[in-house]
Amino acid sequence: MTRLFVTNIKNIFCFFAVRCHKKIIRNYVVDNMRNILSSPFMDMALQQAIDAAARGEVPVGAVLVDYRTQQVLATAGNRVEELQDATAHAEMLVMRMVRSRFLTHADLYVTLEPCPMCAAAISFARIRRLYFGAEDPKGGGVEHGCRVFQQTTCHHRPEVYGGVAADFAAGLLQKFFREKR
Amino acid sequence: MTRLFVTNIKNIFCFFAVRCHKKIIRNYVVDNMRNILSSPFMDMALQQAIDAAARGEVPVGAVLVDYRTQQVLATAGNRVEELQDATAHAEMLVMRMVRSRFLTHADLYVTLEPCPMCAAAISFARIRRLYFGAEDPKGGGVEHGCRVFQQTTCHHRPEVYGGVAADFAAGLLQKFFREKR
Question: Global pTM?
Fold first, then answer.
């Protein structure tokens, strides 16, 4: 009985130690990512966001990458105004462009935290990793609001890395909305 | 002070009375809707769902209606497999077909409770009313899971009427998945 108790305590301790360790590693990775000004794929997404702003769209860009070959599968910026389509967010456009129902071989780079619509679509498409730039406390659905991937009804959760080139991405958005006012 | 207290109590009582009354009316409407086998627009959505099943798609159909003129703006069934597009749900397709960013003049009829992706898109497009058929406890995002419209970050909430021709819509889905097994 005492042995069982000790084993259980050990297991519980191990469980928390592993969790804690994972968190430390994750925070380390994320902190390092924040320190990186950007990555080549996030740079491409940022260029798409700049192009979107030039078209009068909210400056958000996305790039879909095959992580096995590092090949770019699709790039897009927001086209909500141009297509007169409320669903034409950058993330949705890159996913549609690839014409593959399952994107298990793909990583998505997007300059802003995806909204609940895009987050749910990312889950449906079974994208492996999501790298996003600026956080979106008002409209985001990953770290804010719905927190789509944290729902028990979410059947696929990608690995999420936020804050990549966040300052530049947020700066683009701030500039866009300041000029619009 | 006593007067203020009485007024407050009165206000609180009124508030709950109105809420309760609204709930009774809503339940009455919903119950009556359940009793109606269908409505002309939900019939069209069900036909789209039947057609989708014939194409090997999950049988969900949607119809978008201009509520001012009662004119059908778009009809669609799921085309996820056909288009190899995880976002090609019936609701998304009808919204895209209309080519209007804001659909404040439109009501949406769909045979299944929308998922979080479609619910968020409905909110972005500012659709006035959502009528849906069967509930979806595993994948829904309106009455289950994310409950997109109940989030504080949701900027437009349509009026929602669930359970319209629910038995027929649910029957179609059950038949489809039974035959697939």
Answer: 0.81
